[in-house]
Design goal:
Layout (H helix, E strand, L loop, with lengths): L16 E6 L2 E6 L4 H7 L25 E2 L18 E3 L3 H16 L15 H8 L26 E3 L9 H10 L5 E3 L6 E3 L15 H5 L5 E3 H6 L4 E6 L8 E7 L2 E7 L12 H5 L14 E2 L8 E2 L2 H19 L4 E5 L5 H15 L4 E3 L6 H10 L17 E5 L3 H4 L1 H12 L3 E5 L8 E2 L2 E2 L2 E3 L6 H14 L5 H7 L2 H11 L6 H8 L3 H13 L3 E5 L1 H4 L4 H14 L10 E3 L6 H6 L6 E2 L3 E2 L3 H11 L11 H10 L4 E5 L3 H4 L3 H10 L2 E6 L11 E4 L8 E4 L4 E5 L11 H11 L9 H11 L8 H7 L2 E2 L43 E5 L25 E4 L1 H6 L7 E6 L3 E8 L7 E4 L8 H4 L16 E7 L5 H26 L1
Parallel strand pairs: 1-4, 14-15, 14-25, 16-17, 16-21, 17-20, 21-22, 25-26, 26-27, 31-35, 32-34
Antiparallel strand pairs: 1-2, 3-4, 5-8, 6-7, 9-10, 10-11, 12-13, 12-27, 18-19, 23-24, 28-29, 29-30, 31-36, 32-35, 33-34, 33-36
Helix pairs in contact: 8-25, 9-25, 9-26, 10-19, 13-16, 13-17, 13-19, 16-17, 22-24
Length: 948
């Protein structure tokens, strides 16, 4: 199988060109290019082992030596830069002799088990032995060697076999340069030198299993267990990862219908050949035994399931929707789209709701994560999306991270950000908890603003106060680019004494001097960029805070070029796309309001149905109306509201109150346990379409295997639509994208053909910008002039008191993803087998809690029990947990408080009390019983179907 071309050393981006002669051929390359890279450009391969174009040149293997006319010796081509007029020879009898001698030494201390080695056919050492013409090894194995070194198999995904290590340092350099974890070192010197992980084995080390070391290794020293088990792949398909909003491009390397490994694509616009543990290794869920691949129906959630044909399932679902609409009215039915599905699949679901159900009752998981981003950025800048490309961070001088944890939630981008910080960019972290970026190898925050949960708006107002009152506003930018009247009103508001760092010091829990210094750094430190996450949006003032961030960026002129901007880090792989595709109840595709007559007429003409001008129900409205009795049926496509949404008991009560819940998913997730129809979905490996990541990058998703359920998700939705009397005449996902492009100005130039040509493209992609728009708002804002908004701080109504004296906040962890339905069904559970609650030592001591104790966490909404982890990462008065395991019940205790503008839940601020306990909560016990019963219903159904 062919691999991507490796130029040996990274490309140089100099504007100055240099011409030299290599083996009689003139080649022109940018200044700073290595001779090795230039040779590859000229079509000449120089033997190499320690060099690879994803890492800086190292010059240790001595295989890539060349001769340069007029220079003495044999310089390494990987570390020697080009120069005008150089005459280089890569082949000569002397060079051949040196290279054979070097290879002979490598092979003399290497197992000669090529025929049975997992890397056979994909081994650079083997290739180089052939390339240099090594035919015999004169040195025997009698002396000291490393052939009996013990293999480390502790990591669930790859092995480390030191007997095959040639100490080229590629793995160590990849861990440092690409990943930035610094988990590996070369220990010892000379013959004693070896790669070490600092502790006993890889699993216990600082290694985050990103796969960079495995990818860099030129031998079988670091090798995927899947390759050891199944052998070398024979073909590959390029697709896009279905985990977080970074949107990494991967080559799915296959053997027939079997996926052998996922290798990050060097040409991936978002990841440039890097990956994290999830995208690289945690794809086993797609073939997990828990997958349900046959449709099932039942009358009541207390009934066992009946496995049926696709036609019967679709017919039953359609008849139930029709029955309910006749009885309760067309508004009694709605749908939730998935941020894990493709743009095309999301589009057909919202089309089904609008054109077939006859309402705008459609919503998406962005309701509970980034809906305030959509609202706040639309108001201030005119577009509901981030302003930059990920690569922009490499031109930032000051980086402010607010309420985000890039190394855990968006790890490949987190690695890129760390690279820029190691180069000297300054870092401000605003977070109640000490995320890894606050202090990790070679990266330390200049300021950690450890604010109290719920005080974000006070923080941004205090920073703005410093900028305004200390004369740090970029008035030239504001006058040219923004609405001056709105700026004056905002300026006068933030300048008030009550918005000063001193006045807000006790509310924030941050010393005024630190806050002033951080604000000055942001305003005066050069290119300043803001990256934020759910710690900004999941608050009662989430939308206010997003507008506050945009205000600060505009006031300091940090928008409209590389290295700056307002950058929301979107959580799921296609949450940006699901919003772009019109999943919100008030918007068509491209964020155009349903009440706009011209937009509605456009869609009515294309779809041939009258469309409602009234915004539909948001998810919280659907749930409330279900309990009240007026919302009766839900089509839930790839979303798990019973685990991911706040106040779990409220959600499950609503689901129990509906007459027909249709769930389309891979597994019997928490929501599916309340369903009456289960339509098995397809994994990302089984479908074709597009995802849109956090930087507006539209990337191709390409089918690598046959869908185990028989259909891609859009085909299932189209079948349901046909059964409801509205055929959707798509033959392929590309037809859907063509329709999206025809109806959505920002997607006008997007097509499968363009994505095949360019690899990916960032919207807006139009006639004016046919190759997309990496940086938004360059000359003017999408709305014309940027608009400042007053951001009055309103403390949350969720208050601590004697009964609930602590604040609970939540977040994610690297190895798990969202509700964990995918990652819990992989070996990633080795790192995070359960959710725990982090408690500060003072709070633990006050309550007699020790490490590992079971603790009850009670809020105004409910109670759950988790094991305690005592740590100073959280501040006194704050506790923290993750929400990846359903039995943890993290959302049993979160309340129904939400953002004033968008209903985004206030996940990040819940008043609680923590006490030491000895048994699970009542909710957990009833959950366990219900869950076991529902799983048994599904398993028995499948068993009966097999017997028949």
């Amino acid at each position: 199988m062919e691999h991507q071309k490796d130029y040996g050393t990274p490309a140089s981006h100099s504007d100055q060109q240099v011409t030299l002669n290599i083996d009689g051929t003139d080649v022109t390359v940018p200044a700073g290019t290595s001779i090795m890279h230039a040779a590859m450009v000229a079509g000449v391969s120089v033997p190499k082992l320690c060099a690879t174009d994803s890492l800086d040149p190292f010059g240790s293997c001595r295989l890539c030596l060349v001769e340069i006319e007029g220079r003495r010796g044999y310089p390494a081509s990987c570390t020697t830069p080009v120069d005008n007029g150089l005459k280089v020879r890569t082949q000569s009898p002397k060079l051949a002799d040196i290279r054979r001698g070097v290879m002979e030494l490598y092979i003399s201390d290497h197992p000669l088990d090529c025929l049975t080695c997992a890397a056979n056919g994909d081994c650079e050492l083997q290739d180089m032995a052939g390339a240099v013409g090594l035919r015999e090894v004169r040195y025997g194995y009698e002396g000291e060697n490393h052939l009996r070194a013990e293999k480390d198999t502790s990591n669930p995904y790859f092995t480390f076999d030191p007997s095959k290590c040639i100490v080229c340092s590629r793995c160590v350099r990849a861990c440092e340069e690409t990943q930035g974890t610094f988990a590996l070192t070369i220990q010892g010197r000379g013959f004693e030198s070896k790669v070490a992980s600092g502790v006993n084995n890889f699993l216990e080390s600082e290694c985050v299993s990103c796969g960079a070391c495995v990818q860099a290794c030129p031998t079988a020293t670091l090798m995927e267990k899947s390759v050891i088990q199944h052998g070398q792949p024979e073909h590959s398909v390029t697709t896009t990862c279905a985990y977080c909003g970074v949107g990494c491009s991967f080559n799915a390397e296959m053997k027939g219908e079997e996926l052998i490994r996922m290798v990050p694509n060097k040409d991936g616009g978002a990841n440039h050949g890097h990956s994290c543990v999830k995208g690289r290794f945690a794809w086993g869920y797609a073939t997990h035994k828990d997958r349900i691949t046959k449709p099932m129906i039942r009358k009541s959630i207390t009934d066992p399931w009946t496995e049926v044909s696709w036609d019967e399932a679709i017919s039953y679902a359609a008849s139930e929707i029709q029955r309910i609409q006749v009885k309760y009215g067309k508004e009694s039915v709605g749908a939730i789209t998935s941020s894990r599905c493709t743009n095309e699949e999301v589009y057909v679901v919202q089309k089904l709701v609008r054109a077939v159900f006859g309402s705008n009752n459609v919503d998406t998981c962005a309701r509970v994560c980034h809906s305030p981003t959509g609202y706040g950025l639309k108001q201030t800048l005119g577009e509901s999306a981030g302003t930059q490309t990920f690569d922009s961070v490499m031109k930032s001088d000051v980086i402010m991270v607010i309420g985000a944890n890039p190394t855990d939630g968006h790890p490949v981008f987190g690695s890129q950000m760390k690279r820029r910080l190691r180069e000297g960019a300054k870092l401000i972290v605003a977070d109640p908890r000490a995320i890894d970026l606050v202090s990790s190898p070679h990266v330390k925050a200049d300021y950690h603003l450890k604010l109290r949960p719920g005080t974000n708006v006070a923080l941004i107002s205090a920073m703005a106060h410093v900028v305004v009152t200390e004369g740090l506003v970029d008035e030239e930018f504001v006058k040219a680019r923004c609405e001056w009247d709105s700026f004056v009103m905002w300026r006068d508001f933030v300048a008030k004494p009550e918005n000063s760092p001193e006045a807000l010091e006790s509310e924030l829990g941050i010393q005024a001097a630190d806050l002033r210094a951080a604000a000055r750094l942001f305003a005066t430190g050069g290119n300043a960029a803001i990256y934020y996450g759910l710690g900004v949006t999941e608050h009662s003032q989430g939308s206010t805070m997003v507008m506050g961030i945009a205000n600060l960026a505009m006031a300091t002129g940090n928008i409209g070029r590389e290295g700056v901007g307002v950058n929301p880090l979107r959580g799921q792989n296609n949450v940006q796309g699901s919003c772009d595709m019109g999943s919100m109840p008030h918007e068509f595709t491209g964020y155009r309001h349903v009440s706009d007559d011209a937009t509605r007429a456009l869609f009515e003409s294309a779809w041939g149905r009258p469309l409602s001008a009234d915004p539909g129900l948001r998810i919280p409205n659907m749930l409330d109306q279900a309990i009240e009795g007026s919302f009766k049926a839900l089509y839930c496509n790839g979303e798990d509201i019973a685990q991911s949404d706040p106040d779990t008991q409220h959600v499950t009560h609503a689901l129990e109150s509906m007459e027909c819940v249709i769930v389309q998913d891979l597994f019997l997730n928490e929501t599916a346990m309340y369903a009456h129809v289960f339509l098995p979905g397809a994994s990302f490996l089984e479908k074709t379409g597009t995802f849109t990541n956090a930087e507006r990058r539209i990337s191709p998703v390409r089918r690598v295997m046959t869908p185990k359920n028989g259909y891609e998700d859009w085909e299932i939705t189209a079948k349901l639509s046909t059964a409801l009397g509205y055929p959707m005449h798509y033959k392929h996902a590309s037809d859907i994208l063509d329709e999206i492009a025809a109806l959505t100005p920002t997607f006008a130039g997007v097509s499968f053909k363009k994505l095949d040509e360019l690899g990916s493209v960032q919207w807006p992609c139009t006639d004016e910008f046919p190759n997309g728009t990496p940086t938004m708002h360059i000359d003017e804002f999408v709305r014309g002039k940027g608009k400042f908004f007053i951001t009055q701080y309103v403390p949350t109504t969720e208050k601590v008191n004697a009964k609930y004296p602590l604040i609970l906040t939540t977040g994610r962890i690297l190895s798990q993803y969202n509700v964990g339905a995918q990652t819990r069904r992989t070996d990633n559970v080795a790192w995070h087998p359960e959710d725990m609650v982090e408690i500060h030592p003072h709070d633990a001591e006050d309550r007699g809690i020790s490490e590992g104790d079971w603790v009850g966490i009670a809020s105004r909404a409910g109670e759950t029990v988790l094991r305690a982890k005592i740590t100073e990462r959280v501040q006194p008065g704050v506790i923290y947990t993750t929400f990846h395991h359903p039995e943890s019940g993290a959302n049993v205790i979160t309340t129904d408080n939400s953002d004033w503008a968008t209903n985004c839940p206030e996940f990040k601020v819940t008043a609680v009390q923590v006490t030491r306990v000895s048994q699970l909560s009542d909710w957990q016990r009833s959950y366990r019983q219900f869950s076991e019963e529902q799983i048994a219903f599904a398993q028995n159904t499948a068993k009966e179907a097999r017997i028949e």
